[in-house]
Amino acid sequence: MATPSQSSGNNGLVVIIAVAVIAILAVGAIFLMQDHRSGSERVGDAIEAAPHGLDKAADKLGDQAPADNVERNLDKAGDKVEKAVN
Question: Domain ranges in the chain?
Answer without folding.
Answer: 1-32, 37-86
